[in-house]
Amino acid sequence: MSIYGDWIESWERKLTLRDRRRRVFPFEWGLDWLESSQLVFATPTPSLLDRNNRARCRIWYSTGSKGAVVVLPQWNAAADSHVILCRMLSKLGITAVRMTLPYHEERAPEGMERADFLVGPNIGRTLHGTRQAVLETLQVVGWLREQGYEKIGVMGTSLGSCVAYLAFSHSDDIDTGVFNHVSAHFADVVWTGLSTRYVRWALEGNISLEELRDCWAPLSPWFFIERLRQYPRPHLMITARYDLTFLPRLSDLVFSGYGEQGLGCDRVELPCGHYTMAHFPFNVLDGWHICKFLHRRLV
């Protein structure tokens, strides 16, 4: 090495060491970056919050698959919610599209950690946000058809179950569905549910349950059960025996409505509650029932 070369290298090292912001990150395989793609599109029904007007999905492709499912997580779901389920479905031969609900994750208002803009004491915003989620679901279903998928399902948990059911009952383009937690009325879950009690505190004294039920009727599966007579398709409903959010009597009302309409569905009741369904061993049982049903219908 020449004197000049030594001088340049010495200078290079000094310049490099000037940056004190460098960090050593832990080793990771980063497989989640390789197996998941992004789908971003403008919402068909914009809200007053710009951040919320870009619908976002993550996709786990299954090579050669002709079946796909739109996965709708629960209210206040974290970014990693339902990711394991999506990976399992992909390995079973089903392309899984996990949709971010309105006002969640990147769609949330700046500085807001919970998705209180989607379900809250603002009657109109709750109506708009839930309808937004339903229309986005239908838009993803249409996109999947354009991609060549022949069998398409929806799967939702808690609030996501309600959204999935509304989409399912309004579109015969959806071949099957799994509804994880079941309630006849949207308003009753908010009014009586353990996880929404603080929303009720803001509602009480301003509106009665009966009035709230009327206001949120467009969000309630009860009023759309009859539509399934026009488009009878196989679907699975999963309930929890000790659910303190989707009370069992609200689930039973749905099944009584099915009886009145002469409709049938697959039904599973797990011996747990609303939140405990997400913990071992109930999460394994829940996932097994979901995957088994969807594999039978979409592969």
Could you spell the SSE succession in H and E letters?
HHEEEHEHEHEHHHEHEH
The major pleated sheet works out as: 8 strands, mixed
User: Strand portion, in percent?
Assistant: 15-25%
Chain-averaged pLDDT: 93
- Which residues sit in consecutive blocks of at least 5 with pLDDT less than 50? none
Q: Number of helical segments?
A: 10
What is this structure's SSE topology?
Layout: H1 3-17, H2 31-35, E1 36-42, E2 54-60, E3 67-72, H3 83-91, E4 94-99, H4 123-146, E5 151-157, H5 159-170, E6 176-180, H6 186-192, H7 197-203, H8 209-215, E7 235-240, H9 248-261, E8 266-270, H10 282-298
Parallel strand pairs: 3-4, 3-5, 5-6, 6-7, 7-8
Antiparallel strand pairs: 1-2, 2-4
Helix pairs in contact: 4-5, 6-8
Overview of the structural elements:
This protein is α/β, with parallel strands linked by helices and 299 residues long. It contains 10 helices and 8 strands. The chain has an 8-stranded mixed sheet, sandwiched between helices. The protein is globular. The relative contact order is 0.12. The model has no long low-confidence stretch (mean pLDDT 93).
